[in-house]
Amino acid sequence: MGPKGKLYRSREDWRCHVSASKVKPTRWYYVLAILIPIAACLGTAVVVYPTVPELPGALEAAGLHNLTQVVVPGSAKVAFPKAGEYAVYYEYRSSVDGVRYDGPGRLASMDCRLTSQATGAHVALAGNYIEGSKYETEERAGVHIHRFSIDQPGVYEFSCQYVDGRACPQIVMAVGPNIVWEFFNVAVKPVAAIVCGGLVSVGACGISLLIIGFVAFKRHQSKKTLAVQA
To answer: Are 67 and 175 in contact (CB under 8 A)?
Structure first.
């Protein structure tokens, strides 16, 4: 006689019953399977959340108000607070000190220079016209035409003159952060965290489904074994 008064034909049958019962996984494995993706999601939130509040402010810091407008032909002093990548934009629609400037669609050849006020050294301006790299607001619209790197923060003089020496028409250049570069530099951290977190969550869900499937299969197999022995 086995546990709970159940009769078995032989001691061997009782041993088989006990063995099948031990093989049968408990329902706690289902709880574990549910907890795994929940833990993965919480872990992702912990990693991503600190980067999100910084994003709007950082993108704003790379905005148009940080671009120094220079009416050319002419020159102006531009302050660069830190080393890094910067850009020059041709503003074909602009407004400076209440004066409206509407430049031609195609920019004439100009000789633009950037010189350090501290050392007198010239900074190389790489021609980098990118038609798709534009910004547009109601007051201003510009296109990326030069990129350059600042190694030493400080005040620099930016100047532009027409190659043929003419003085008109006056147009506006905007010098400052490389908006596209700054955007990717700022956005890459939270985006990478979200992507990695998503992959971890998907992997956790896959593991969870495997555990549920395995437990369900083993429990079903155990029930069949017990039914045959009954």
So the answer is: yes
For 33, how many CA atoms within 13 A lie in the half-sphere containing its CB? 17
Q: What angle do CA 81, 183, 79 make, to 5 degrees?
A: 15
User: CA torsion angle for 42, 47, 51, 53 (degrees, to 10)?
Assistant: 30
**Residue holding tokens 């790197």?**
149
CA angle (31 as vertex; 26, 34 as ends), nearest 5: 140
pTM of the entire predicted model:
0.56
For the chain, 230 residues long, the average pLDDT of each consecutive 10-residue run is: 48 50 60 74 70 52 76 94 91 90 85 93 84 76 90 95 90 86 64 72 78 74 60
Task: Kindly give the interhelix angle for 179-229 and 28-48, rounded to the nearest 10 degrees.
Answer: 180
